Amino acid sequence: MIRFENVTKRYADGTTAVDDLSFEVAEGELVTLVGPSGCGKTTTMKMVNRLIEPTEGRIFLDGDDISGIDPVQLRRRIGYVIQQVGLFPHRTVLDNTATVPHLLGVKRAKARERAAELLDLVGLDPATFGDRYPEQLSGGQRQRVGVARALAADPPVLLMDEPFGAVDPVVREHLQNEFLRLQQAVRKTVLFVTHDIEEAVRLGDRIAVYGQGRVEQFDTPSTVLGAPATEYVADFVGADRGLKRLSVTPIEEGDLEQPPVVHLDDPLPKDLEGAGARWAVVLDGENNLHGWISAEHARAGTGTVREHARRMEAWLPVGASLKQAFSTMLQHDAGWIAVIDERSEGRFLGVLTPARLHEALRRSTAADARDIAREDVDLETVASITAT
Ligand SMILES: Nc1ncnc2c1ncn2[C@@H]1O[C@H](COP(=O)(O)OP(=O)(O)OP(=O)(O)O)[C@@H](O)[C@H]1O
């Protein structure tokens, strides 16, 4: 969808900002460009919408050499989100979002209708926020308007330059999650610039790690963390890459353990301990997760499971990251968490225990070309780092 072919950019003062860059971003793929300040990320990005022209090389969009496309036409195919957002201060949130479609000839009422849908999509209720002015929004809310506005013309490509850079870490994580959900729905081809490796790893289908003007490694987050191509990349992703790996490794069905299972209307299981279990998972009639029951309660109680079952607080959908699993365990002080299939209304799949989490982490590590040091994936190390 976007292809860089031996692209170099030298500024008039002789600075080589980008040096012989070649890579390709597939349709619907989200590629993060990450690297230290001044390494050429923004220059790369701005060459795609022709805010900057390359000195050498060519860039293709959907097979067309962009140097042959009129910049105004080109930019209609490309949404652009920047850190400072650049909302029009004297226009309401709704009008800000509707601006581009309106400029493209969509009737005002229609453009506003679409803008309201988009605000909803980025998590801003149009009834509450639509008539506000940018200065009446928080930083995070302004960023969301920026994203909604970039999506308004429904461009196939989005360029995002540190879009969440100006907000605090909590809001930032929230925006990242929302953006990932949004991307699932809209599947744009996205180039996303950040200097934060955590953000790059979290969001990217693939990551381009920049050194000075050059891409040192272009690969999946898991491979970049597990098998850094160069010393430089290893340094950049950091010594705690085992920990970062938690956030890019999803829980798979094969990782789960199958505990004893009882149903709500079953008689109490009297001998769970005899079967070597301290608890059982409780399911409803549809085999969806209801809760759990301890062996002790089951042994001492009377009646059916229903009267003694406790609500399940620590659960996650399959596909959630090991990091989420780990933090859910810590948050609920739980020795295990239940994993469900959200697509089938909560069907219970099994439980993840610390031992299984550790195995999953090993699996993900072993999948890479080069092993990372064993202590990097040691769960106790992970626990001690996360707890501090
Ligand atoms: N107009 C310009 N003239 C001369 N040099 C420039 C110009 N714009 C950028 N540069 C230089 O090109 C290099 C790459 O800049 P660029 O903005 O692409 O980096 P970046 O990776 O996006 O950095 P940051 O994370 O700080 O935004 C830097 O050394 C910068 O000083």
Describe the structure.
It holds the Pfam family CBS. One of its GO terms (molecular function) is ATP hydrolysis activity. One of its GO terms (biological process) is glycine betaine transport. The protein has 388 residues and is an alpha/beta fold. It folds into two domains: 2-242, Rossmann fold; 253-359, CBS-domain, CATH 3.10.580.10. It is built from 15 helices and 17 strands. The chain has helices at 41-48, 71-76, 93-103, 108-121, 126-129, 139-151, 169-186, 197-203, 221-226, 231-237, 241-248, 295-300, 322-331, 354-366, 379-387, and strands spanning 2-10, 16-25, 30-34, 56-61, 64-65, 78-82, 157-161, 189-194, 206-210, 215-219, 261-263, 279-283, 289-294, 310-311, 315-317, 337-341, 347-352. The strands form four sheets. A six-stranded mixed beta sheet has the order 6-7-8-3-9-10, with helices on both faces. The protein has a four-stranded antiparallel beta sheet with strand order 2-1-4-5, covered by helices on one side. It binds adenosine-5'-triphosphate. Adenosine-5'-triphosphate is lined by residues 11, 13, 15, 17, 35, 37-43, 195.
